[in-house]
Amino acid sequence: MGREYLLLIGSGDRPEFRAILRRLETLADWECRRFPTLDSAGRLDEGTARLAVLLESRPGEYPPRAVDRFRARFGPAPIVMIAGSLCEGEARTGRLPRGILRYYHYEWETALRPDLERFLNRRPGRLSLPATANEEDYWRTLPPPADRPEETVRIDSGDPAGENTPRCAVVAADPGMRELLAGNLARRFGMTQSFRSAAELLAARRMPQLERIAIDLILPRTLDFVPVLQQIAEIYPRAEYTLYLFAPHPEEIEAFTGAAPGVTVLSKLSAAALYDD
Questions:
Q1: Within its chain, how far is the Cα of 240 from the centroid?
Q2: Quick check: 138 and 129 in contact, CB under 8 A?
Q3: Which among 6, 15, 146, 257 could disulfide-bond with 250, CB atoms 3.0 to 4.6 Å apart, if both were Cys?
Q4: CA-closest candidate to residue 141, choices 151, 130, 149
Q5: What would the pLDDT profile of 142-175 be if each residue is shown by its tens digit?
Q6: For residue 32, which of 59, 10, 64, 63 has the smallest C-alpha distance?
Q7: Neighbouring residues of 163: CB distance < 8 A, sequence distance ≥ 6
Q8: Residues 190, 152: contact at Cβ < 8 Å?
Q9: pTM, entire model
Q10: Cβ 165 vs Cβ 208: under 8 Å
């Protein structure tokens, strides 16, 4: 049996796919093979596909019959579909062909990347299930959550941290948005500190354990925030960043994801669904 590889199928021309492709193509110890269509990938006759990633640029790009022919060629390899901006929502993407897991492009950091890491490290997870599995099967595979005292879930008001070091930070001028983001991050990651502005975050005492920073952008000229983001990223180079824009344009997504590592740009219209518990 030849070397295992990852199949990347579809056009990478759309801006929302560029950052994801860069991350996939630089995975250590994994060869990535790019093909524009399912049919062209199906002509491979050596090696073993470990995973297939379909980039869906437009609704209906991958009809069920074409997917079935592809699956017959590559057997048990999981198939992941990443839906682009033109395919957001069930009304556009429609029902999935059998055995495909769909992720929207804005779910890279929050859902796809963690699932992919578990799969490539051969740990149990969503991508390790057989093609016939459903969502209920996935939840049954998860270990029971560890008991955690209620007091360990804390939302800091923005005052300097005490003995507990924050793992997350929220920057939002609107109090309601600040409370929403801080509450969701605290439930998921633990101690969270909130700030009313980027200047307030930059002036705060350094938080060496910071893992994630969520920023709500309301500037008239959104791209003016790029140098500010770079300044924050220089201080917290290990943190992952989530930026919320009302309706991000492709050039804005490209500018922010290229400004610093680990940046995800989300539409505020999608944020409620993303953090829906």
A1: 10
A2: yes
A3: 15
A4: 130
A5: 555 444 433 333 333 343 444 457 889 999 988 8
A6: 10
A7: none
A8: yes
A9: 0.52
A10: yes
